[in-house]
Every structure is written in C-alpha cells, then in structure tokens.
Design goal:
Length: about 160
C-alpha cells in the first residue's frame, strides 16, 4: 500500500499564515530599522567650513564680531543655532577666530573698544584682545575656531580649546 502524504489543509494554512505574517513583519520592520540606524550611517559633516563674511570687514587690531547660523544634527534631530565669532588680525595675513562665549559660565562676551578688552558680564571675567584671561574667574582663554581665508572670505571650522 502506498503512503500518499501530500500537503494537508492544516499544513497549507500554516504556510499561508507564516508567509503573510513574514510579509507584514518585513513591511513594518525594515522601515523601522532604517529609521533607527539611518542617522548613524550618514556621513559626518564635521569637516564643513562655515562662511562668515569678507575679510574687508575686519579692522586691523580690532576684534570684529561676525554672526553665523549653524545646523547641528544629533541623530535624526536637527537644530539651528546662531553663533558669534570675533575675528582678529594684526597684519591682514594672519587671522584668529574666537568664540564669544565665556569659558566660565557661558555668558556672551563683548568687546569694549576704549579699554581694548573683552568683558564677560558673569562675574566680571576680563580677556585681552587675543582672548587670553586678564582677570576674573574664567579657567581658560576664549575658545578658538579653525580659520581659513579663501577668495577674500573668512571661513571657520571646528572649535578648539586654547591651552594656557
């Protein structure tokens, strides 16, 4: 007697159920996985330079304030913020770019022309025109940005600390 074991109705329904479940899981799961790990796979734009403005705006020996909007990407959250950068040149060839944020409590410093100093309103921190601490509680000089001059335009790169 031949054993005639084909697909039973029960086996056919099991296969159909698992196939439909797999398709639905794939349809929902793959986009979810792409959404979660997608930002980690994007190339970093940390090497990008931000254009501030023309070098003709910078007066010799006087820190000049430039403002720029930068977009920070953290995962899939994008935020835009405005940064202030003081640019200084003594000779028109060598430039430095300093953050306008005090290294003590994060207040915005301002340039006082008649005293030739930066003043921080939080606890009276005082910096010279190159951003070095003169007095007050700031623990280090003003942070600096990498800087490059290209086609008469000032560009800034990454922010770094100045060692005392």
């Amino acid at each position: 007697m031949a054993d005639n074991k084909g697909l039973t109705r029960r086996d056919t329904l099991k296969i159909a159920t698992w196939t439909i479940g797999g398709l639905i899981s794939s349809a929902l799961g793959l986009p979810a996985v792409a959404y979660i790990i997608g930002p980690a796979l994007k190339p970093s734009d940390d090497q990008g330079w931000i254009k501030l403005g023309p070098t003709t705006k910078v007066e010799f020996g006087v820190p000049t304030l430039f403002k720029a909007k930068i977009t920070r990407q953290t995962g899939w959250i994008s935020s835009e913020e405005q940064v202030g950068v003081f640019v200084l040149t003594e000779d028109g060839r060598d430039y430095i770019a300093m953050s306008n944020i005090c290294t003590h409590l994060g207040c915005r410093v301002r340039w006082i022309q008649d005293k030739e100093r930066f003043l921080s309103p939080c606890h009276n921190g005082i910096f010279d025109k190159r951003g070095m601490v003169i007095s007050g509680p700031p623990p280090r000089p003003l942070d600096r940005y990498e800087i490059k001059i290209e086609n008469g335009q000032v560009h800034i790169g990454k922010l770094y600390w100045v060692e005392t």
